Amino acid sequence: MNSPIRPDSLPEASGGNLVVLSGVASDAHTWNLVFLQLLLEELGHRVVNLGPCVPESLLVEQCARRRPDLVVLSSVNGHGFQDGLRAIAALRARPELADTPTVIGGKLSTTGVADGTLSRRLMVAGFDAVFEDGHTEFGDFRGYLATVRPRVLP
After folding, report:
1. C-alpha closest to that of 8 among 80, 78, 64, 92
2. Which helix H or strand E contains 19, and what residues bound it?
3. What is the pTM (predicted TM-score) of this model?
4. 3 state SS for 29-79
5. To the nearest whole number, what is the mean pLDDT of the chain?
6. What is the signed CA dihedral for 148, 104, 142, 97, rounded to 10 degrees?
């Protein structure tokens, strides 16, 4: 699905950490992204919201160009695990993004079981944190955000 908004035209505010926020490739939900953008901005972060249904190639292109301090991926449709695996593999394959803090959260599967198994597998795949719906608390995400520091780029 093509977004009517060109990611290159998205404005960046000044100050705070730069966060690239994105839905996973198969997820068309937007309310989660709007909520997360408002939360991140309220906490003092600058946000580039790429929107829903973002293919891995576009995510990597935007992250390589913007060099964010944090990448946040969100899933509501229950396919976050599979989409997340592809996204983190693509991000970590780029040397300039290999150490960019990247997190994913939301509904990661359609089974309704949130026992931490998928979270552990996503961490092994390269995510820095996973906030699985039903397995983590909202405060866990806020606590993680408090640890994110601006990256010093060469």
Report:
1. 64
2. strand 18-23
3. 0.88
4. CCHHHHHHHHHHHHCCCEEEECCCCCCHHHHHHHHHHHCCCEEEEEECCCC
5. 89
6. 10
Distances (CA, A) of 131 to 47, 48, 118, 128: 19, 20, 10, 10
Tokens 């601006």 sit at which residue?
150
47 φ, ψ (degrees, to nearest 5): -125, 130
Residue 5 is classified by DSSP as S
Spatial distance between the Cα atoms of 69 and 27, rounded to a whole number of angstroms: 24
Per DSSP, which regions of 88-133 are E strands? 102-106, 129-132
SS3 82: helix
Residue 86: burial class (beta carbons within 10 Å; 0-12, 13-18, 19+): middle
Q: CA 46, CA 93: separation in Å to the nearest integer?
A: 25
pLDDT in tens, 76-101: 998 999 999 999 999 999 999 999 99
Please state, in angstroms and rounded to a whole number, the distance separating the CA atoms of residues 98 and 92.
Answer: 4
